[in-house]
Design goal:
The chain is of the alpha/beta class and about 325 residues long. Helix content is about 25%, strand content about 20%. It contains eight helices and 15 strands. The strands form five sheets. Strands 4-1-3-2-5 form a five-stranded mixed β-sheet, covered by helices on one side. A four-stranded parallel β-sheet has the order 6-10-9-7. Strand 9, helix 6 and strand 10 form a beta-alpha-beta unit. Helix 1 runs antiparallel to helix 2.
């Protein structure tokens, strides 16, 4: 069995005193050798944590000891290597950033569809299927026939929906994301905009890949995850992608053979996005990472997540 239990979680709930949870939650994570990122906001919690099984279960039990999180649902997977490098509990305005005031999934949200019922819904000719994730996530895998909004961040989704009403004209709108949290907000937003039959995949892609047999699946490719596994396939087995340490985009083995790829410095996607000075800093960082590795030590040398991905570092989509 793999050594590290990975738990992805989120819950929309009124949490007016959320800041008071930051210190004790950080302490319980550290004392149990649990790492990852948890986001706290007045609208709830979102995050992904990983560590020894007993430690992760202790943190989950601590959370469920609070009445607001008594019915907290999480999704589990396993990793052979430590997926995160440190424990972080951050305070945010939103646990997943859409940037539209007044969207509250506790008041209005789309209809949940269980993984075993998802194929029938998205195969219905009266259904338009929308991938609410960012472009670099969609690029390595999505559901057959899904619309790709080509958004760089979740903040761009409301504008995309407003500009693509013709695409969304079908009677049913089915939406999905990695773990479900973006769909909570995107379906709430769509309902607020007057769309009637709005659905989303309960538990997200991760639950679908866990429960639906591969020979019955309408999923194509890998699912990007925001940790050291980079991507997963059916059964939540590790996927075929690595991560560019400069921009955190997923990259294939073929892309690593291109001249624009320099380990820790650039890849074909970000080669033109960074200045020579930035590349020089990245190269020095990569040098320090390799020196630490040769000494048998870990080096905290990962860049910050891409702009717009506040929830991305916690698997968004938990």
């Amino acid at each position: 069995m793999s050594n590290y239990l990975v738990a992805a979680l989120y819950k929309f709930v009124r949490l007016p005193e959320y800041a008071s949870l930051q210190a004790p939650l950080t302490e319980i994570c550290i004392s149990n050798d649990v790492k990852g990122t948890l986001l706290l906001a007045a609208e709830g919690i979102n995050g992904t944590i990983a560590g020894p099984e007993a430690g992760v279960r202790n943190v989950l039990a601590y959370l469920r000891g609070h009445s607001e999180f008594a019915d907290l649902i999480h999704k589990e997977s396993w990793a052979d290597e430590e997926p995160f490098l440190r424990a972080k509990v951050r305070l945010k305005k939103e646990i997943v950033t859409m940037g539209v005031d007044g969207i509250d999934p506790n008041k209005i949200v789309g209809t949940y569809v269980k993984p075993e019922d998802w194929n029938a819904l998205i195969s219905d000719p009266d259904t338009v299927v929308v991938d609410t994730r960012n472009d670099y996530e969609v690029a390595i895998g999505t559901f057959k026939g899904a619309v790709d909004p080509k958004t760089k961040s979740f903040r761009e989704f409301p504008a995309w929906a407003a500009e693509n009403k013709d695409t969304l004209k079908k009677p049913k709108v089915a939406m999905f994301c990695t773990g479900g949290i973006r769909c909570e907000k995107s379906t709430a937003f769509m309902k607020e905009q007057g769309y009637d039959e709005v659905y989303h995949l309960e538990g997200g892609i991760l639950k679908y890949l866990e429960e639906v047999p591969e020979d019955q699946s309408l999923w194509e490719g890998d699912c990007f995850v925001f940790d050291e596994r980079v991507s997963v396939r059916h059964g939540l087995e590790p996927g075929d992608y690595d991560m560019c340490r400069a921009c955190r985009r997923p990259i294939s083995e073929e892309e690593k053979e291109l001249p624009e790829f320099v380990e820790g410095v650039s890849c074909p996607y970000c080669h033109e996005e960074t200045t020579p000075e930035q590349k020089e800093r990245f190269a020095e960082r990569q040098k320090q990472i390799m020196l630490a590795k040769n000494r048998g030590e870990k080096h905290i040398g990962i860049t910050k997540p891409r702009a717009g991905d506040e929830a991305a570092v916690v698997a968004e989509d938990a």
